[in-house]
Amino acid sequence: MKKDGRMNSIKDKVFANTRISAQDALFLFESDDIIALGEMANCRLKNSVKEPREVYYSYNININPTNICRLRCKLCAFSKSPGDDGAYSQTAGEIVSRVKKALKANPGEHIEAHIVGGLDPAYDISFYENLLRSLKSLSDKITIQAFTAVEIDYLSKLDKISVDEVLKTLKQAGLDAMPGGGAEIFNDEIRSVICEKKIKSGEWLGIMKKAHGHGIPTNATMLYGHVENDSDRVRHLELLRELQDETSGFKSFVPLAFHDKNAMVKKKRYTSGFDDLKVLAVSRIFLDNFSNVKALHNMLGLKFAQATLFFGANDLGGTSFDERIVKAAGACQAAEVSEADLIRLIEGAQKIPVLTDSTYSLKIKRSS
User: Fold this and answer.
1) CATH numbers and ranges of domains, the chain
2) pLDDT tens across 307-324, in order?
3) What global pTM score does this model have?
């Protein structure tokens, strides 16, 4: 089939709100027709959510308790070894004080605490259980999204208890949702190069399946723009779609552009704005069982993030108070923004701003 015929065939599937194949997705990644991708992504968005003009954001504070990590992945510019310059560890009291400050700055507003950090034996499940309870006691307007699948696996091994017990304990302490970090790319040969000591693809998927079974909603991510190829991207999306078919536990898909400025892994392919839009659009088209696709403004820049709203994205992330991991990687756009900035950005695209959290159970429409 000629290229035009293949593209039209895929369009017919999308406009009929039917599923495309992995081979179709690969064809779209190899296509340069960004306008067609945008049209299909918008069509899929309209069929995936009740209010396609609504764009979500959250008021969130980023909490990274420590950057000391036993893994020291080559893709990570954030982690340190004990004694390194810049290595730090925060106490539970210091973390609680930071959240109190965020609450004071926005009295009466909903706050999301986003907690991820290094794998340090000083931070065991008892520490995190007490921390979550302390944070929840501050206000009934705090949502806690915390712990990647990698951290859950580490806590299980550190405390010599099952993953199920870790998840059950943390949920009872106040865990509302989990982020999607640590997925990177689901190709274990590539993982052996970019994150050798991190859990394998199947383990990440297995932990997320268990989290969904415990009623803990999660995000899903894909790190792109390092040493992977288009087939790797498609396989990654395919595995996510298969698990979502089974559990419906993923609340959002978050593609993450790799920044190599301060990382030991160097890019083998250049990712342009064109490529960022393509990844977002193809992800939205292929992941027909995901309601939300998130474009992180702190990785893409505010103006470019606005453009993604026409290529399948319907969530711009949060205010990212004190974000550190993306900054450490060298993303020049990484910065805190105000709620007013995000509202203006969304309204400027003729969309409706909606304050939410990682569970999407909170939905408060805003206006400037």
Assistant:
1) 53-365 (3.20.20.70)
2) 999 999 999 998 866 544
3) 0.92
